[in-house]
Amino acid sequence: MLAIKADKISKSYKIYPSPGAMLVEWLTFGRAVRHTPTRALTDLSFELQEGETLGLIGANGAGKSTLLRLMARITEPTTGSIEVHGRVSALMELAAGFHPDFTGRDNIAIKCALLGMSKEEEAEKFAKILEFSELVDVIDHPVRTYSTGMYVRLGFSVAIMVEPDIILIDEVLTVGDQHFQDKCLRRIRELKDGGTTIVIVSHDMKPVKYLCDRVLWLDQGRPVDFGPSAHVVDEYIDTVRVADSREAIQAENVRMRTGSREVWIEGVRILDAAGAECSTFASGDSMAIEIKYDTRIHVERPTFLVTLFRNDDVEVGSCSSRTDGVSPERIAGPGIAVLSIPRLDLLSGSYEVTAEIQDASGIRPYDAHYRLYSFKVRNAREDFGICRLEHAFRFEASP
Amino acid sequence: MATAKETGCDYRRLLACFVRLDLRAKYVGSIMGWVWTVFQPLFMLAVYTFVFSMVFHIEVAAETGTSYYALFLFCGLLPWHAFQRGVMRSTGSLVENANLIKKVAFPVNIVPVYLSVSELISELVGFALLLGAIVLFDPPLHLTVLLLPLVLAVQLLFTLGVGWIAACGNAYFRDVYQFMGLLMMAWFFGTPILYPLEKVPAGLRTLLGINPMAHLMEIYRAILLRGELPAAGSVAIFCGFAVVVFVGGWAVFRRNEKAIADFL
């Protein structure tokens, strides 16, 4: 069954420079336009099935929170329509509605009422809420005496114990200490397994990848990508990495060609197991990098060097014919060098390839193509980092 | 902003919770607590009585229902204060609760409602004092006192209507709060609270006739002090105002609540 259906929703806000300007516009019935329209969402359509978990990702100002507020019915779309089926609980501002002079116990009551719990429901869940919050010792103290962490724990505990059909979570997974975060994640997982529809906004990709079935990536109010979470998150991380390192790369002008050209590189091809040119690999695939070269002179023991970079400037590793001790005795004309990598155990990301031919000592480059070739790796697993280490686990009970 | 139905929210429970909270908020952290709720109207009454009865020698004729100025004054001051505080607190309420309104899905119209109800309940403490004083100093207590809940209910409708409209206005323009402060002061002196209507020159008296609060005062004095059914004219005018303002205020609020959630 459908839980949420958004049909071409747009949301724009009118920003007035001053209250006076707004009055002028009102008094002229909108003829004297004084506002600047600001678009938070543009023409967004999607459907979410009951029991699905949706992640919303994107930079600040991408429209994630606006979308969440639309789902929570706090605000209405400017155009388009949104249908939400079932009881919604929104965890946005955890401390909203707290009264600092009242005790934790009182504030639980307020929060329960705000979230739409009935009296019976509250009575039934109070013990669970208290236990989850780990605030038993201070529950009868005024909340103004609480630390920020305790404050947030209280808010989260109430909100997470409601049993809504749809739960909306905005950036609250990053609250509290590690212990509490893990506990929250487990509880959300429980809700998910229990069939609750969940929408999560987070800048932390790990919970998104861990919890979500599908991810909607927004940029400036428009959808960039919508699909299975691993795929979209990988694309997103990649793009962010490039954006972060683009300046540095441009400053250093690292994509370039240098060398004396006694030997020159005609072309470089990245090949898959079948020998066809390929730009996207899965972790563990085999890969070959083929360097086509030419020379007019005789060259003794040229060094062939291939270096892989991730697109944020991390040097992943290099393969050198000199250190391998396999450089050809001499070359005297066109030819190809093929580097084969039987298991490409890199994790998701975009990678760049530097191909170089150097002299026998590996000091002077004949021709070097710095990071001119690229490929992507997509990994379906939840591993993080650059590479997957060959590994095995062993378990034993202690005697 | 969502209606109660949309959020699955129990409106009455939320209202009860907010009202209880607001009443307790008045004394939480204070030593004397509830005593202030009793002491405050008494003190105010003493001050006004001193100024107007002992300094200015305003006397009330027996036709108003009592010859004690203090009782006469108290009877008008209580409902006025509940009205004034309900309206003024409602006026500022949306701005003060902006964070809640923008982040939590709940029926926002409840904010002015709980403030007005809370003020009305505080008024009840004063009424208990007033009834006690009548029994003590100017018996008997008339049976018409049983009409009090009805009057309070209509007064609540009027307070809510004004409160909703002013709250919306203040969300857009903060000037409204300042304006309402002045309006309330003028309204207070333009309503026969400190003085009996009979002392007003005949020409001005017709002007006061269009002031719904003047009629409310008449209604209160009729049922509490004189033990009569209130004049049909006063009842008609005040009820008419109350219903029109209430319905109008509700319409204004419904029309604007979504826009305000975006605007705040």
Structural account:
The complex is a heterodimer of chains A (399) and B (264). Chain A has helices spanning 19-27, 64-71, 104-114, 119-133, 148-161, 178-193, 205-211, 229-252, 321-324, and strands at 2-15, 36-49, 53-57, 79-84, 88-91, 166-170, 197-201, 214-219, 222-228, 256-258, 263-271, 280-282, 287-295, 299-300, 303-310, 315-320, 330-331, 335-341, 349-358, 365-378. With 399 residues, chain A is α/β, with parallel strands linked by helices. The longest helix of chain A has 24 residues, at 229-252. Chain A is elongated. The two termini of chain A are 52 Å apart. In chain A, 35% of the residues are buried. The mean pLDDT of chain A is 85. Chain B is mostly helical and 264 residues long. Chain B has one domain (4-263). Chain B is 74% helix and 0% strand. Chain B contains 11 helices and no strands. Chain B has helices spanning 4-7, 11-25, 35-55, 69-96, 98-103, 110-137, 148-172, 175-189, 202-208, 212-226, 232-263. The two termini of chain B are 12 Å apart. In chain B, 41% of the residues are buried. The model of chain B is unreliable at 1-7 (pLDDT under 50). The A-B interface holds A 13, 19, 22-23, 69, 72-76, 87-88, 90, 92-93, 96-97, 99, 101-102, 106, 109-110, 113-114, 116-119, 142 and B 1-2, 6-10, 13-14, 17-18, 21, 24-25, 28-29, 99-106, 172-175, 258, 261-262.
Topology:
The complex is a heterodimer of chains A (399) and B (264).
Chain A: E1 2-15, H1 19-27, E2 36-49, E3 53-57, H2 64-71, E4 79-84, E5 88-91, H3 104-114, H4 119-133, H5 148-161, E6 166-170, H6 178-193, E7 197-201, H7 205-211, E8 214-219, E9 222-228, H8 229-252, E10 256-258, E11 263-271, E12 280-282, E13 287-295, E14 299-300, E15 303-310, E16 315-320, H9 321-324, E17 330-331, E18 335-341, E19 349-358, E20 365-378
Helix pairs in contact in A: 3-4, 3-5, 4-5
Chain B: H1 4-7, H2 11-25, H3 35-55, H4 69-96, H5 98-103, H6 110-137, H7 148-172, H8 175-189, H9 202-208, H10 212-226, H11 232-263
